[in-house]
Design a protein that fits this description.
270 residues, alpha/beta, Rossmann fold, 2 domains, 7-stranded parallel sheet, 8 helices, 14% strand, binds NADP nicotinamide-adenine-dinucleotide phosphate
């Protein structure tokens, strides 16, 4: 299927690793101009090379910390100068280092840090990008939330609350921006063996037999530690969600807005 993305201007925040990277590669394969935003120089340049090889019309690495408003404004400003328009904004970065733990173990600083990356980063990126999205002939926003918002776990209270706020923001924006033809949707991943999750697996003691390259192991650990099983009995590979994000963010998606799409191996009805 031709997603109508050739030449489209796309920004994927958190597009250098995991699910954001997988989505960026799908946009690149469709011939889009793809900017990826992250903090790490090596990951940015490796991703830009991979996107060019995958077929991107342009690949633009943007170094920025999404918890710093000035960084976001500067990164989007670069795209304003370069492209003057944006067809697709994907907010895929999320709390990785923060937000895990039970309510009585999470202090104010951690709550604030979790909401800074989990919610406020998307608020600021949408705000900065809106003039560019409005300047484009068609536009989509895709926010990557989390399935844990639907299936609560006491072990990840702050992370889940920040993601629930992001999901609410998405729905609210979808209503506000519908008259302008800007479609806004949420994609909610279940358990994925992305960089953040692999790093977590590597911190576990050997007796837990947590092989980060084994999707069944990743699923088992997530179920044991966070109570999130899935009917498919394995975690997802980021490559399995990239095409979903690309479709929802594409020109072919003309009638889906305000939706919250699960990609979770059946976790929703376990
Ligand atoms: N993995 C899962 O099982 C799972 C489940 C549900 C929801 N999610 C959500 O899905 C999204 C993608 O997760 P993932 O596991 O694929 O992530 P990941 O592999 O850990 O990658 C995270 C990306 O975000 C960037 N990033 C993180 N903090 C940033 C910051 N402060 N400023 C700029 N960039 C930042 C990272 O680049 P740098 O580190 O180089 O900055 C990287 O590109 C996240 O929103 C996550 O919360 C994940």
């Amino acid at each position: 299927m031709d997603l109508g993305l050739a030449g489209a201007a796309v920004l994927v925040s958190g597009g250098t690793k995991g699910m954001g990277r997988a989505a960026a590669e799908c946009f690149a394969a469709e011939g889009a101009r793809v900017a990826v935003l992250g903090r790490t120089e090596d990951a940015l340049s490796a991703t830009a090379s991979a996107l060019t090889a995958a077929g991107a019309a342009e690949a633009v690495p943007l170094r920025a910390d999404l918890t710093v408003r000035e960084d976001i404004d500067a990164a989007v400003g670069t795209l304003a100068d370069r492209w003057g328009e944006l067809h697709v904004l994907v907010n895929a970065a999320g709390p990785v280092e923060v937000g895990i733990g039970r309510f009585d173990a999470v202090d104010d600083d951690e709550w604030e840090a979790t909401f800074a990356i989990g919610t406020l980063s998307a608020v600021r990126t949408v705000r900065a990008a809106l003039p560019l999205l409005r300047a484009a002939s068609w536009a989509r926003i895709v926010n990557v939330s989390a399935h844990s918002t639907k299936r609560q776990s006491p072990d990840i209270v702050a992370y889940t609350a920040a993601k629930a706020a992001l999901t609410s923001l998405s729905k609210n924006l979808s209503q506000w921006l519908a008259p302008e033809g800007i479609l806004v949707n949420t994609v909610s991943p279940g358990s994925f063996a992305s960089e953040g999750m692999r790093t977590y697996m590597r911190t576990l003691p050997p007796e837990r037999h947590a092989d980060p390259d084994d999707l069944a192991d990743v699923m088992r650990i997530i179920d044991e530690d966070f109570g999130h099983p899935a009917h498919l009995r394995r975690a997802g590979d980021p490559a399995e969600i990239g095409p979903v994000i690309a479709f929802v963010g594409s020109r072919v998606n003309t009638y889906m807005t305000g939706a919250n799409i699960n990609v979770d191996g059946g976790s929703d009805f376990c």
